[in-house]
Protein: Histidinol dehydrogenase
Amino acid sequence: MIAIVKPDELVKHKQFKSIQQKEEHVVKEIIELVKAEGDPILYELTHRFDGVLLDSFMVRKEEIEQAFAEVDPDFLQAVSEAAERIRRYHEKQKQYSWMDPEEDGTILGQIVRPLERVGVYVPGGRAAYPSTVLMNVLPAKVAGVSEVIMVTPPLSDGNIHASILVAAKIAGVDTIYKIGGAQAIAALAYGTDTIPQVDKIVGPGNIYVALAKKAVYGQVDIDSIAGPSDIVVIADKAANPTYVAADMLAQAEHDPLSSAILLTPSVHLAEQVIIEIEQQLGDMNRHEIAASALKNRGGICITNDLPEAFALMNQLAPEHLEILIEKPWDFLSQVKNAGAIFLGEYSPEAIGDYFAGPNHVLPTEGTSRFFSGLGVDSFIKKMSLISYSRKALLRDGARVMTLAHTEGLGAHAYSIQVRLDKEKAGENK
Structure:
């Protein structure tokens, strides 16, 4: 079960690398096939990997309408409300173009433009993750992306989960294709007769999807190469051990490689959490997955005090950070590295996964040291604007030429000189 470990052991214990050379070779072969053969190989690979013979990749309007008829009304209400909250949150992230006129007539500024076409990968098959649809599509739509294309693997009968189609319609997906795996990523990156090339690919997937995104980066942009999900809980003696255990197990049930770590200065709390974990595990439908994650990548660390707990957390740089202490706001300033922060006992990580509004696509494996979660910024580009005036060029031209000559770039300097010479000649007339 979960073990109590020392701080130095915990940091080493957290490190994980999952990329394998064998899978990389397979992915490269698939990408080259899709680049060379297009749609025909996509149909063949879908038959080979998903066991489905399709006559068309595109999801029809009638299929989406049927999905709305199939889903439970409670689900429809929940996903609609979640979408509205997610949309409202991301609206606050929007950035706008600006221009700054100076007294000499110079205008400097920044032009903000959305990407034109984005591809969203949504895991499918036996799994159904409508929350993934909302979290990846809605920020793109808020940013102003003209066309959002979604790809997702079909079920054995050639259909897509009704919940996925409903979420896609509510989020505003423009086109949905029944295709998954590395071949879907390749199709989005390079385009085929059926599937148009995109500017960026986002969304989670298995090792083949992750490696395919890595391989096509540069041809298109991607969100990240996500690793297994993780959480760090910082708790003191005032924390409820039932809540702490439940939140750690909620993270552990994702994947055998998920990481759930508790940092606490309270030995008593640690002991109670271990008891709670053992009790709650017995009632979980994903018991084996959670147990494996806690055994291999879970841990409880007894710290000297809360400042030490926060210092250690910043080294781990978790994807999710829960602060379950008596006065959580008093310690917020000590948080330097975390993908998302959950303050207080009424803010379990699950509320962020589905409903609160902030994005649940977050940096994993310690990369919150330098990455941010998915958001509106992920779907825009910024262009600088320079409009120099005659007066400003005459004032600054010599300085520019000095810098250009220092770097040995004579043509740069000459492009300034010809303008200065022309202006001086005009003044002498």
